[in-house]
Amino acid sequence: MKKLFAGLFLFFWVPLVVASGDEDYLEVREAFRVGDAARVAEYVQRMRHHVLLPYAEYFQLRLSLTTADTATIRAFLKRHDGSSVADRLRADWLQLLGKRQQWAMFAEEYPKLITPEESLRCYALQHRLATGDRTASAEIRTLWLTGRDMPASCVAVFDALIGSGAISTEDIWARIRLAFEAGNTGVARSVNKYLPRQQALDVQKLDAVMKDARRFLDRSVSVQSRADREIVLFALSRLLRSETNQALVRWQKIREQFPAVDQSYFMGNLAYWAAIRQDSRALGWFLEATSGKHAYPLTETRRAWKARVALREGNWQVLQDSISQMPATMQQEDVWRYWRARALKADRKNTEANTLLIPLSREHSFYGQMAREELGEMLSVPAAEYQIGPQEIRVMEQNPGIRRALVLYRLNQRVEANREWAWTVQHFSDEQLLAASRVAQRYGIYDRAINTAIRTVSRHDFSLRYLAPYREQMRAVLQQNQLDEAFVYGLIRQESRFIADIKSGAGAAGLMQLMPATAKWVAGKLGVQDFRSSLITDINTNLQLGTYYLKHVLDQLDDQPLLAAAAYNAGPGRARQWKDTRPLEGAIYAETIPFNETRDYVKVVLSNSMYYANNFGHKNKPTLKQRLGTVAPKR
């Protein structure tokens, strides 16, 4: 039998040791959860000198917030001014003030809140409407135009604007359409009540569409009103999610019953879902949808896919046009600056292209690297401009917020710890960020070390941005599977940020985020007996299983890191399916991956690989374009 850990170096990680009194936090937290005010009060006394006392005091006051006097609440806010728990209590108090419509105190406290929730924003808008603030209407309309469900506090401001006519019947239909696009029929039903009864959606027809859209469309479809048109368009949209041609055939039979603007809207949906399925007809449908004076405006998502389709089809002119029609903020995204420059170069407008590429090349991102290579430059990163000294690290360790976060981490309260850490570092200088990153690294909290280091603006330390723990354990498995160290580290950084016991909502676990079924399959291939899923988060086990699987994927997919990264995230079958019928530039393959998560994932993994190769001092390291390669046609 093969030994699972043969040839691996032993590694001992010393976790944060639980200190005296830490367990009291867990007890007071549980007492708060069950609403035991007496026990909470007891633990507040026990924790008088503990770093997490502010949390215990928060729990105590939160349980009595509805009856607490204003002086007590303000004393807590003053005592813990600037802390995350103070902001949290202020938000809780503002919710109560908003419900009670105690606007004087609400108006005094709301500007002090650092992170207002949407529900509080709507209470603030209620107050502004009550005081006659006419500028509130524009903000309310922005909140209205969404397919999401909105907090109850927003209903009052929506009602006010609908009553005054500031939100029109057309706006009501626009939100219903957005709700349908989001698949949120509950929102569509609730918004439907604002329409006059004779104009409203027929909920029985809506139910029939939800039950079976194809069957609904195959009956004799009557399109007599706006409500009928919206129901039919929704049915077609549901069918488009799974079948392009079936929806198209049914549309062609009834399209003349729809005005030009609705025809444009359907064509935009048709083009979008065809693009997601990489159907070569998508570009023509996008052009049809966006032509003419009655064209229905594409959403930002559909605008992006129109550009991606033009890119995949090699139509650089349509790509240029598509990007120029995007909102200004969207055009400034690095992805569209890069592809616009490429389109300009294809049109031999090199000077204009370089105007975009030069500033982009200074950005530390996938497209910043691509721009640099387009200009003929290799990746280079600045040396650590600011060396953090021991004294700075000691000072940072004594920062109250950092201390609270460290205790929460050692109690395995990761969600609360992450919130405390993020709150504490949000206004740090570059020097403070790097010191905090070193503290996180010292305590083995690698995700915070990385996420803190990448926040620096002008002073950077790429050894912190691209940490490389576990190199001793890694060497043996890399050699055994003949894998590129930089690529594997780039992948692990994206998968887990080097948190060994992390688990995803889908069930993937460990450094290389292995699904239990995958881990079991690999363990079988390696001849491991008595394998159990609890071993997946063991560092050595995870690395051996994960690198074996990654090598297996590479062997299946032409030994291309791009395809292997796509397969690692979405499965080998999909990585093959996303190929074209002709050779495809790797960067174009990556940009036109239909899954948002996978599209971002492969770019980050390959970008990470470049930085790791640089940090490791690898010789003859490939460029990013070489790592992306050319994707061979489908067989």
- CATH class division of the domain at 471-631: Mainly Alpha
| Contiguous uncertain segments of 5+ residues | 1-15
Number of helices: 38
Q: How far apart lie the N and C ends?
A: 38 Å
Could you tell me the number of beta strands? 2
Biggest sheet overview: 2 strands, antiparallel
CATH topology of the domain at 471-631: Lysozyme
Give the strand order of the largest sheet, numbering strands 1, 2, ... along the chain: 1-2
The dominant shape is globular
Beta-strand percentage?
Answer: under 5%
Q: What structural class do the secondary elements suggest? A: mainly alpha
Could you tell me the mean pLDDT? 94
The appropriate CATH architecture of the domain at 471-631 is Orthogonal Bundle
Structural commentary:
- Helices cover 63% and strands 1% of the residues.
- By secondary structure, it is mostly helical.
- Among the domains are: 71 residues, Methyltransferase, Methionine Synthase (B12-binding Domains), Chain A, domain 1; 161 residues, Lysozyme.
- A two-stranded antiparallel sheet has the order 1-2.
List descriptors.
635 residues; two-stranded antiparallel ribbon; Methyltransferase, Methionine Synthase (B12-binding Domains), Chain A, domain 1; 1% strand; 38 helices; globular
Layout of helices and strands:
Blueprint lengths: L21 H12 L3 H10 L6 H11 L6 H10 L4 H17 L2 H7 L8 H13 L5 H9 L8 H12 L4 H13 L3 H8 L10 H9 L1 H6 L7 H15 L3 H11 L5 H17 L5 H8 L10 H14 L2 H9 L3 H4 L2 H13 L3 H11 L5 H9 L15 H8 L2 H11 L3 H12 L4 H13 L3 H8 L8 H4 L5 H11 L3 H12 L19 H10 L13 H18 L4 H10 L1 H6 L6 E2 H6 L4 H21 L7 H5 L1 E2 L4
Antiparallel strand pairs: 1-2
Helix pairs in contact: 1-2, 1-3, 2-3, 3-5, 4-5, 5-6, 5-7, 7-8, 7-9, 8-9, 10-11, 12-14, 14-15, 14-16, 16-17, 16-18, 18-19, 19-21, 21-22, 24-27, 25-26, 27-28, 30-33, 31-37, 32-33, 33-34, 34-37
